[in-house]
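Q: How would the structure tokens look for this protein?
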Amino acid sequence: MRWTLKPKPDSIILETLQKELQVDPFVATLLVQRGIETYDQAKRFFRPTFAELHDPFLMKDMDKAVARIEAALLKNENILVFGDYDVDGTTSVALMSSYLRTKSDRIATYIPDRYDEGYGISYKGIDFAHDNKFSLIIALDCGVKAIDKIAYAAQKGIDFIICDHHRPGIELPKAIAILDPKRDDCDYPFKELCGCGVGFKLIQALSSKDGKTPEDLGEYLDLVATAIGADIVPIVGENRALAYFGLQVINTNPRPGIKAIIEQIKKDVLTITDVVFIVAPRINAAGRMKHGNYAVTLLTETNEELAKEYAKEINDFNLDRRETDRRITEEALVQIVDQKEEDRLTTVVYHETWHKGVIGIVASRLIETYYRPTLVFTKSGEKLAASARSVKGFDVYNALEACAEHIEQFGGHKYAAGLTLDPKNYEAFKHAFEDEVSKTIDRSLLTPEIRVDMQIDLKDITPKFYRIISQFAPFGPGNMTPILMTENLRDSGYGKCVGEDDKHLRLTATQGIDKIVCIGFGLGDKCDLITDRKPFSAVYSIDENHWQGNVSLQLKLRDIR
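A: Here is the predicted structure in token form.
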């Protein structure tokens, strides 16, 4: 594990902010590292307001989208709300359809089948729309590259409005409106919305015609916050405000579907991390194991008892998903050893029976053992399909592009991609991918990195310090949980390995007269570093330990040495 200490901020900026806010230098350092350098920026950071949400009509084509939807509502047209099968897609469809149903009873939803239709807009979906007399499709979290499919829809007399957040190609589809802040010709001030965020901007624009403000749309923000967390978009700017208010809704008055999930997990207050690791996987499991329609049904249900039934069904899918990805991960790890590929620079594994819905998760799990670019293949019809995952700093999309002669189709981005190829090309691709990575990767990237915000002593970790950094939440890309480092620590003498197979490490760290309890999940193999009161350094985040009604601060260790 590499520890990289972030550079200290400019001392003048630091001192000025410290005086303006009347905070200690540690809090000021963490703020400046996050781009917060003035009193006003700090005020917006700690107390987001709806005023930070931009005018939706600043987005290219928003006026066209609103005009077309208003016309469809006026003429009683059938409107189909179409979205991808992942969390961002299903929350987007739930948001848009539930809003439009307050205006019309001619609204239906469509989620493509992950296995039969694949990602994004499908010909089968367009045929469904045509057969059922839908004249307008609103596509969410997909569509910005679907040039041929939108042309096909136009031939059948179906108009498209696209709400997407992926980077467009050189040519845009001929849709009525394309809402995508990443369009080169779009001057919208915030570029990092998720698909559900773009959908929210559209209902914000539509509702403004009725004199409503963003505050009046609070009931939809639990969906937006869930999508922001699940899609790992930067939680800065407009996303921070949407996530902040969305979490308030999740924790006070969530829709019945999300409330039913929360009741299953029995947690009083959810953070964005809980949304990412507890709520989102359950919603995602529907599309992975069965069909994304189950997620939309849960998220749009208004009856609490029915929502509980649907949530139980989705929880069962998630349990099935967890067991499936655990089994496949074990099989893949055995395959790597059997084929003597432990020392390669890439992981490429394949079995024809592996479940296509979980191979992306398995790729991420394999990186936990072998930290290197990873592809997991399975059989999909007559072809092989794979999910690719990368390590921080290495562009797996570019590496796949260099191997394009062996691939039939691929798409994605720097750290995650998908591809298909002919089975006869598998071995040639595997060799070419290893060769390309070996030529282009910086070897240091094959060691996991922990980026450390700053060094601190135990005496500086006070309840007040923790209270302030807790208000940095919601955490996520662009505003990660503060990671701190302390040197010259010693165990009090009672440190030990705990848990199944002694997997975890628990100790009380001391530094002079100061001491604090530490828990290191997965650090059981480092137990010998703390024995006999040997000095050690630690990197960690701070959190609260709740035990028998008592609350105390503890360090959540990331690594020790």
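Residues 304-338 form the longest helix (35 residues).

The mean pLDDT is 94.

Upvote if useful.
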